[in-house]
Specification:
The protein is mostly helical and about 270 residues long. The protein contains twelve helices and two strands. It has a two-stranded antiparallel sheet with strand order 1-2. A hairpin with a 3-residue loop joins strand 1 and strand 2. Helix 4 runs antiparallel to helix 10, helix 5 packs antiparallel against helix 9 and helix 9 packs antiparallel against helix 10. It is elongated, with a radius of gyration of 21 Å.
Length: about 270
């Protein structure tokens, strides 16, 4: 009887133990998915044993099982009791489909943020105190400093938008933003990773942030509303302009965390 083809594990460093199990499972799944896609592995190819993969990635077997379960849910893998896990789909095509769904989830979230951020910016322009304006301007500078030092600026970007929400004087606005903090953070990781690849994108984002702050500082709510909405619309445009290479690599892996986020499925 012919034996199922096998493949060797990708040589990735072990993940640090500080990551939570769910995050590790997603990351390991992304690495296996990418390996399957890059090598164009055929249907029926058998993965190494669960224990071998767990040892290779430096994770527990429960984390490894989570990664396999994620790929099973995507239709990439199938498991057979006593035999292990096997590739059961044209992985490159399936990976493209999952990424396409992820990009649409990202665009959907940006659309929702457009309405949210524009109203928040308008209210901040009307109600912000001098101290809150200082906080907003400081948050803007920290983004620029982070980018200049080679950091992705994700946390700084999230903090910038949260500081504007706090300047509305209505505690429910920042609470609403915090409720969606995780998918927003995931979305910002994708958009900033894309924007970091092109100097013109990075400059556009900086200019858009500055326009929002200038309108809030001037106390002009309609200008602030327009600037915030324009920022979100341009973010969506930049996502649509991202090339296939970006979505096949880190961009796709980051975008897929949105599809896997429980909030996005409620």
């Amino acid at each position: 009887m012919d034996q199922a083809p096998t493949f060797t594990l990708p040589h990735f460093p072990a993940e640090p133990a500080s990551f939570v199990a769910g995050t590790l499972g997603v990351r390991v799944a992304d690495k296996l998915r990418q390996k399957i896609c890059d090598d164009a592995l055929k249907v029926g190819t058998r993965l190494p044993s669960e224990q071998a993969m767990a040892t290779h990635f430096g994770v527990s077997r429960s984390v490894m099982r989570e990664a396999i379960a994620l790929l099973k849910s995507e239709g990439i893998l199938n498991t057979r009791k006593g035999s292990g896990a096997f590739i059961c789909a044209a992985s490159a095509e399936r990976n493209d489909l999952v990424t396409e769904q992820s990009v649409q989830s990202l665009l959907n979230l940006i659309e929702v943020r457009g309405g949210l951020e524009s109203e928040i910016a308008a209210l901040a322009a009307l109600r912000r105190t001098p101290g809150q304006l200082i906080e907003i301007e400081h948050a803007l500078r920290t983004i620029e400093q982070a980018v200049a030092s080679g950091v992705d600026g994700v946390e700084e970007d999230v903090r910038f938008h949260l500081s504007i929400a706090e300047a509305t004087g209505n505690p429910y606005w920042p609470k609403f933003v915090e409720m969606f903090a995780q998918p927003i953070r995931s979305a910002v990781k994708v958009t900033r990773a894309n924007e970091a690849r092109r100097q013109d994108f990075s400059q556009q984002v900086q200019n858009e942030h500055e326009k929002i702050v200038e309108a809030i500082a001037a106390g002009q709510p309609e200008l602030a509303r327009h600037a915030a909405m324009e920022h979100m619309q341009h973010a969506a445009e930049r996502v649509r302009l991202a090339d296939r290479e970006f979505w096949r690599g880190d961009g796709g892996a980051l975008a897929r965390t949105l599809v896997q986020d429980p909030i996005m499925h409620k």
